[in-house]
Amino acid sequence: MSVQHEPVQRADFDQYMVPNYAPAAFIPVRGEGSRVWDQSGRELIDFAGGIAVNSLGHAHPALVQALTEQANRIWHVSNVFTNEPALRLARKLVEATFAERVFLANSGAEANEAAFKLARRYACDVHGPEKYEIIAASNSFHGRTLFTVNVGGQPKYSDGFGPKIEGITHVPFNDLEALKAAISDKTCAVVLEPVQGEGGVLPADKAYLEGARALCDQHKALLVFDEVQSGMGRSGELFAYMHYGVVPDILSSAKSLGGGFPIGAMLTTSEIAKHLSVGTHGTTYGGNPLASAVAGAVLDVINTPEVLSGIKAKHERFKARLLELGAKYGIFTEVRGLGLLIGAQLADAWKGKAKDVLNAAEKEAVMVLQAGPDVVRFAPSLVIPDADIDEGLDRLERAIAKLTQQ
Question: Residue 84 and residue 89: Cα distance in Å, rounded?
Fold first, then answer.
């Protein structure tokens, strides 16, 4: 039995919603695999992936099954009790990573909030209240709560909300000397994205992350990796830290973890985790059975040699064609990223026009993203068929051809 819904249209957004977003003119209503249909029935190829969230595309049978089976069992019990899907997911995450303990939340911002609070609590307990300073990277992005937006290195997001949270310093990304100059015995944590997502799809240098690890050890600070965007297979490894061979003390995950169902996770060691003792931190919905069941299914599908090696192959397929387009139309100067988190840097003549590329692409029925005004970003399904990659890039080429002719 399907429910009859009142008709809605894009104009309703402007009438009813807080105006903090400027969504596209069309409304996606159905998705299957790497394709999406809007209200008029138009089909688009999805290279945006809900901003690196739909890790297995739309309506993946394994996820639909996990969700519906769990929906018929139990939805929510709160953290006064534990639940089976949360325990299964936590065990799988521990078995697959450096971690020994898991905290489940509902979003990347919440996972980071927990990570940063834990880092401060650990330092306070072990070293004393003076050790609370956090060092993060310029142009980083860690979420929109007051704490996470202040740790993020983009003042445009943190200005105008009253006094800033104290004890947070920003240094240029990939600059080890700058980090060395900033770190001290008052530093409780160094927070880095192994690949800066919103900052322009910038992978860290291996030597930089190795140097950061050594500096943290030297100054008894924790190394925190924000893998909200780079994690869960996105890089071609289960987590990007594995690609670099640099192990953090705390790691945050979300986005691809739930394949489209809201969930976040903070991973850490037993030694550090014990400082979040009963009552020190919490969440009403975190570890919800529905989200945990879906995330468990996502992990089962992604964490296989076939899928992970497929992601690396698909990266090469994207990159080769994007470089070709860049040269042919003089639009991209560089294509960078790991796995299926890819950024195409716009040439000087196109600086600031990422949004124009995005709009032109949509007119040719392909959805892409931007990462700042100068980078076109691709974060498709990790199992996107090669035929969809090729067709989507054909559509993108048509969009670029039209743009360059104008």
Answer: 9
For range 361-380, the mean pLDDT: 98
Task: Mention every residue, 6+ apart, whose C-beta is less than 8 A from residue 352.
Answer: 346, 373, 374
366 labelled ligand-binding = no
Whether residue 228 is annotated as binding a ligand: the answer is yes
46 known ligand binder = no
Contact 104, 261 (CB under 8 A): no
Supply the DSSP string of 322-347, one letter for each residue: HHHHHHHHT-EEEEEEETTEEEEEEP
Q: How far is CA 67 from CA 19, 29, 243, in A?
A: 32, 19, 31
pLDDT in tens, 93-111: 999 999 999 999 999 999 9
144 is known to lie in a ligand binding site: yes
Cβ neighbour number for residue 184 with a 10 Å cutoff: 12
Q: Enter the CATH code of domain 74-302.
A: 3.40.640.10
- 305 within 8 A of 233, measured Cβ to Cβ: no
Chain center to CA of 379: 10
Q: What are the residue ranges spanned by the domains of the chain?
A: 11-59+307-405, 74-302
Q: Does 226 belong to an annotated binding site?
A: yes
Q: How far apart are CA 148 and CA 142, in angstroms?
A: 5
Token pair of 281 as six digits? 């931190």
Residue 141 known to bind ligand: yes
**Residue 283 marked in a binding site:** yes
Annotation-wise, does 324 bind a ligand?
no
What confidence score (pLDDT) does residue 1 get?
Answer: 66
What local confidence, expressed as pLDDT, does residue 3 receive?
79
What tens digit of pLDDT does each residue of 236-255 get? Answer: 999 999 999 999 999 999 99
Name the superfamily (CATH) of residues 11-59+307-405.
Answer: Aspartate Aminotransferase, domain 1 (3.90.1150.10)
Type and span of the H or E element at 367: strand 366-367
Write down the H helix ranges in 219-285. Answer: 240-244, 270-273
The tokens describing 225, both together, are: 């990796």
